Automatic annotation (TrEMBL):
<dbReference type="InterPro" id="IPR020578">
    <property type="entry name" value="Aminotrans_V_PyrdxlP_BS"/>
</dbReference>
<keyword id="KW-0663">Pyridoxal phosphate</keyword>
<keyword id="KW-0479">Metal-binding</keyword>
<feature type="domain" description="Rhodanese">
    <location>
        <begin position="547"/>
        <end position="630"/>
    </location>
</feature>
<protein>
    <recommendedName>
        <fullName>cysteine desulfurase</fullName>
        <ecNumber>2.8.1.7</ecNumber>
    </recommendedName>
</protein>
<dbReference type="GO" id="GO:0031071">
    <property type="term" value="F:cysteine desulfurase activity"/>
</dbReference>
<dbReference type="Pfam" id="PF00581">
    <property type="entry name" value="Rhodanese"/>
</dbReference>
<dbReference type="InterPro" id="IPR015421">
    <property type="entry name" value="PyrdxlP-dep_Trfase_major"/>
</dbReference>
<dbReference type="InterPro" id="IPR036873">
    <property type="entry name" value="Rhodanese-like_dom_sf"/>
</dbReference>
<dbReference type="GO" id="GO:0051536">
    <property type="term" value="F:iron-sulfur cluster binding"/>
</dbReference>
<keyword id="KW-0032">Aminotransferase</keyword>
<comment type="similarity">
    <text>Belongs to the class-V pyridoxal-phosphate-dependent aminotransferase family. NifS/IscS subfamily.</text>
</comment>
<keyword id="KW-0808">Transferase</keyword>
<dbReference type="GO" id="GO:0046872">
    <property type="term" value="F:metal ion binding"/>
</dbReference>
<dbReference type="InterPro" id="IPR000192">
    <property type="entry name" value="Aminotrans_V_dom"/>
</dbReference>
<dbReference type="GO" id="GO:0008483">
    <property type="term" value="F:transaminase activity"/>
</dbReference>
<dbReference type="Pfam" id="PF00266">
    <property type="entry name" value="Aminotran_5"/>
</dbReference>
């Protein structure tokens, strides 16, 4: 799959061609400093004023202020600093100012983090109070009603970036009537998707980010209601009428202007009804491809451009990797925490079960998406479904990882029997889907030896045999033939006299080992491989393949990712997922095996680095990996 389908619009968007053109025009022809009084400066200033005027009209800001800045994070800082300075002044004058900083529990992290930061920095010591959300992701208005009389500042987003849930701003505004609280509404996800008439509301501050709606990163806006307190965050040359110093980002302003023009003139962005039809089509194809899928926010009351879902038995990482291989870019939970694969605090706040929160995927598209893109997305989603359905039953060892711990499956496809070692609750769905069609002979614990069938000396999995061996302190390890040992949390020293040195240790701790290590290597305690030549860039890979036509490319992504993508690099590649590497290792590590160069690759370079490192630690010098992964190969 080559051309990507970008379905992560809530994280950021591509730049609209008209916006790109406007930015280039600003840089090439209107590069003057808008503060300069000569013609070049005046030209730039005219451009800036025009964009501001359009934004004022579109957002309905009346006689409020609208300043350009770097984006919503800056707008949030400015708004919170302004509010907290005003609260401090009111307090000093003995006026009622409130004592709580209230924020919706599903707000973007920029809000609670900034509240805590400025509250601490200004020495205000106000209580920072999350406002609960209901099961549909909406603010709990009854809770807000109880807090409102004591609230100094209330922060509630217009629409949620993870779920697309649209807030009841009218309801919140009504609850805040009579409260001394200032009100910040994060409008980042609302721009271009919801009608906004800010001056008609009680909202004091509304930040925006251009890059969420086809403008470039680094340009944003902040609305401040007429009469709302204001303190500049940035002081200097007095730009933006002294409200935000620093020479303006004219290319960004020009690009944002082009987006706002498209919004105002119509024709570029789809109607609400069209977007709803797009969402329904995508949701239908997801339902067909991923049986058991649950959507984590009701469609009624959410932006039609956002779908948040979980699939039993598939982690968000697995789904992301599968979609990525099929050329579909989606994200897990919030984009900011995707690397950590943590449960989503937004879904947690909605009270969803842990498995849904930790395996959630967000698929979001921008309002300029067209029918052809949606049709292509549906087709690829269907392909992902086919790939998943066609996945063969696992055979051999399967390593599953969650929360820093490994669970191991020993599967024998011929006899359709399997054993699960150190099962974790968080992986139950996944284990269930993998062992479908298998007879589970035992679910074993290395901690206390539990699960072993009474009176059995060994468990037969087809031709393979699993035995139990006491390690000490009630812990046990399980020996698979004479090749592998499932050793739980036992250290190599614990096992030194119990096992032959070439036994491959399959531990329970991900800190101890990403894959597996022979006892001999573990006892030698070699530090992580320092070999720089293990990393190949594209050129080094091409050189190696030329010099060693027999080199084997090994795709260490999951089998369904491999299948979703088709051929990689134009070279035949075999599929040995990292999660199955332990089973394959003995074949590559045979004492007199010829060391054919092995080049591991995956999506980002993480899994392939682990695989190459594992082989090198066992003395396999000809192991390499594609640094940066396939993602960098275009
Ligand atoms: N608020 C919401 C709802 C967002 O989605 C984001 C970005 O993800 C932000 C604030 C922060 O925006 P930026 O990173 O552009 O400053």
């Amino acid at each position: 799959m080559t051309n990507e389908l970008y379905l992560d619009g809530n994280a950021t968007s591509a730049v609209l061609p008209a916006a790109l053109q406007a930015a280039m025009d600003a840089m090439a022809h209107r590069y003057g400093n808008p503060s300069s009084t000569h013609a070049a400066g005046l030209k730039a200033k005219a451009l800036m004023l025009g964009v501001r005027e359009r934004a004022r009209r579109l957002l309905g800001i009346g006689d409020g202020r609208l300043m350009f800045n770097s984006g919503a994070t800056e707008g949030i800082q400015t708004a919170i600093l302004s509010a907290l300075c005003a609260i401090r002044e009111r307090r000093a004058l003995g006026l009622p100012a409130g004592e709580l900083l209230v924020y919706g529990a599903t707000e973007h992290k920029a809000v609670p983090e900034s509240l805590a930061h400025w509250n601490r920095l200004l020495g205000l010591d106000l209580a920072v109070q999350p406002l609960p959300a209901d099961a549909n992701g909406r603010h709990d208005l009854a809770a807000l009603r109880a807090l409102a009389p004591r609230a100094a500042l209330v922060c509630t987003m217009a629409a949620n970036n993870e779920t697309g849930v649209i807030s009841d701003l009218d309801g919140i505004g009504a609850v805040l009537e009579g409260s001394p609280a200032l009100w910040l509404v994060d409008c980042v996800q609302a721009l271009g998707k919801l009608p906004l008439h800010l001056a008609r509301t009680r909202i004091d501050y509304a930040p925006f980010s251009g890059h969420k709606l086809y403008a470039p990163k680094g340009i944003g806006m902040l609305y401040v209601r007429a009469g709302a307190p204001f303190t500049p965050l940035m002081m200097g040359g007095g730009q933006e009428a002294g409200q935000r110093s620093g020479t303006e980002n004219m290319a960004g302003i020009a690009a944002l202007g082009a987006v706002l023009q498209a919004l105002e003139e119509g024709g570029t962005f789809r109607t609400h009804a069209e977007l709803v039809a797009f969402r329904d089509a995508v949701a239908d194809s997801l339902r067909q491809a991923l049986p058991g899928i649950v959507f984590n926010a009701p469609f009624d009351g959410t932006l039609p451009t956002t779908l948040n879902f979980s699939v039993p038995g598939l982690s968000s990482k697995e789904l992301l990797d599968l979609f990525d291989a099929a050329g579909i870019r989606v994200s897990a939970g919030s984009a900011c925490s995707a690397a950590k694969a943590a449960p989503s605090y937004v879904l947690d706040a909605m009270g969803l079960p842990e498995w849904r929160s930790s395996s959630a995927v967000r698929l979001s598209f921008g309002p300029a998406t067209d029918a052809a893109m949606i049709a292509a997305a549906c087709e690829r989603i269907a392909h992902c479904g086919e790939v998943l359905r066609a996945a063969p039953m696992p055979d051999g060892l399967v390593q599953l990882t969650a929360g820093g711990a490994h669970t191991w499956l020993v599967c024998d496809a011929a006899s359709a029997t399997c054993v699960v070692i150190d099962p974790q609750a968080a992986l139950e769905n996944r284990i269930g889907s993998l062992v479908q069609g298998y007879r589970v002979l035992a679910r074993l614990s290395t901690r206390d030896g539990s699960g072993w069938p009474e009176g059995e000396q060994a468990l037969a999995l087809g031709a393979r045999q699993l035995r139990r061996l006491a390690v000490g302190g009630g812990t046990v390890c399980y020996l698979l033939d004479d090749t592998h040992a499932f050793t739980g949390h036992a250290t190599a020293a614990d096992l030194a006299t119990l096992l032959p040195p070439e036994t491959l240790l399959c531990t329970a701790s991900a800190q101890q080992e990403a894959c597996c290590t022979s006892l001999r290597v573990a006892l030698a305690q070699r530090p992580p491989s320092p070999d720089a030549d293990v990393n190949l860039d594209s050129k080094a890979l091409a050189d190696l393949l030329r010099a060693h036509p027999d080199a084997l490319l090994v795709d260490v992504r999951e089998a369904h990712e491999h299948a979703a993508e088709g051929s990689a690099h134009g070279h035949a590649a075999i599929s040995v997922p990292l999660s199955r590497l332990a089973g394959q290792l003995p074949r590559w590590l045979e004492p007199d095996g010829a060391q054919r160069p092995l080049v591991f690759f995956c999506r980002s370079g993480n899994r392939s680095a682990s695989a190459a490192d594992c082989l090198r630690r066992h003395g396999y010098r000809q192991a390499y990996h594609l640094a940066g992964g396939m993602a960098l190969r275009g």
